[in-house]
Amino acid sequence: MNRKYVYFTLDIAFFLLFMTLVVLILTGNLMIAVVEGTSMEPLFQTGDVVFVVKVKPSEIRPGDIIVYEKPNGAYIIHRVVKVKHENGETIIITKGDNNKYYDPPIRMKQVVGKVLSVYNMPVKLPFLGLISLWVKSIINY
């Protein structure tokens, strides 16, 4: 096979993947999050970048990794331990993989989305977010 043809095909594939990501981000169906803290170690390290997709309540299952917003506005990336339905409302129990205790129960309206996984392995870009965390620390200083 011609080497130029292979490179051209790879260029087209990466371009299409990039454009798909851009469209999903612009439509609000995909977000990018930077991991901060040790609660999900060893799976995620501070500075890892993850992709977060919007989901319906029926698509969240134990074992999924979700991003949710705490009442104080902080975003948390933790694993779903249990999903309950009470009085017509979905209640989710989460826990960081590296934490001893469960988080307080959250409601579906707090869920931002689910971390994108392929064959049950979360998609992450290791340490790519360290620059944004560094800039954030300077701004907050």
Summarize the topology.
Elements: H1 3-26, E1 30-34, E2 49-53, E3 65-69, E4 75-86, E5 89-95, E6 106-107, E7 111-115, E8 117-118, E9 121-122, E10 124-125, H2 130-140
Antiparallel strand pairs: 1-2, 2-7, 2-10, 3-4, 3-7, 4-5, 5-6, 8-9
Number of helices: 2
Unreliable segments (pLDDT under 50, ≥5 consecutive)? none
Mean pLDDT: 89
Shape: globular
Quote the beta fraction: 25-35%
Q: What profile does the largest beta sheet have?
A: 8 strands, antiparallel
Structural class by SSE content: alpha+beta
Q: Could you describe the 3D structure shown?
A:
- The protein is 25% helix and 33% strand.
- Strands 1, 2, 3, 4, 5, 6, 7 and 10 form an eight-stranded antiparallel β-sheet that branches. The protein has a two-stranded antiparallel ribbon with strand order 8-9.
- The chain is α+β, with helices and mostly antiparallel strands.
Structure keywords:
eight-stranded antiparallel sheet; single chain; 25% helix; alpha+beta; 141 residues
In summary, what is this structure?
The chain is an alpha+beta fold and 141 residues long. The protein has helices spanning 3-26, 130-140, and strands at residues 30-34, 49-53, 65-69, 75-86, 89-95, 106-107, 111-115, 117-118, 121-122, 124-125. The strands form 2 sheets. Strands 1, 2, 3, 4, 5, 6, 7 and 10 form an 8-stranded antiparallel β-sheet that branches.
